[in-house]
Amino acid sequence: MSSHGPACPMTAHRSDGLRGVADVPGDKSISHRALILGALSVGETVVTGLLEGQDVLDTATAMRAFGADVTRGEDGVWRVHGVGVGGFAEPGGVIDCGNSGTGVRLIMGAMATCPIVATFTGDASLNKRPMARVTDPLALFGARAVGRSGGRLPMTIVGAVEPVPVRYEVPVPSAQVKSAVLLAGLNAPGETVVIEHEATRDHTERMLAGFGARIVTEETPEGRVITLTGQPELRPERIEVPRDPSSAAFPVCAALIVPGSDVLVPNIGLNPTRAGLFYTLQEMGADLVFENLREEGGEPVADLRARYSPDMTGIAVPPGRAASMIDEYPVLSVVAAFAQGPTEMRGVKELRVKESDRIAAMADGLRAAGVTVEDGPDWWIVHGLGGDVPGGATVATRLDHRIAMSFLVMGLASARPMTVDDGGPIATSFPVFGPLMAGLGARIDG
Ligand SMILES: O=C(O)C1=C[C@@H](OP(=O)(O)O)[C@@H](O)[C@H](O)C1
Ligand SMILES: C=C(OP(=O)(O)O)C(=O)O
Question: What is the CATH classification number for the domain harbouring 77?
Answer without folding.
Answer: 3.65.10.10
